[in-house]
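Handout, section B. The chain below has 73 residues.
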Amino acid sequence: MSRKYLRIQPPPKEKGNKPNFRVIYVIDVNASNAKNAAKLTHQIMTDLDSMPPVLQVMDCKGRIVTIDLAKRK
């Protein structure tokens, strides 16, 4: 059995005055097919009553920081 791994590349460097970031949102959902999984995920992401997610944010050098938006600072 061959295993495929998802590799997420860093975002390109921006030429403006603000750095460019790639935000990674990972969620497991049960659905009948890929399109329905995407639709369900979008509903969850835009639902104002949903819990804020844990996100991984990557800068243009590939450094990743995990941010839990549900935690208050």
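Note. The first helix runs from residue 34 to 46. Compare this with the example in section A.
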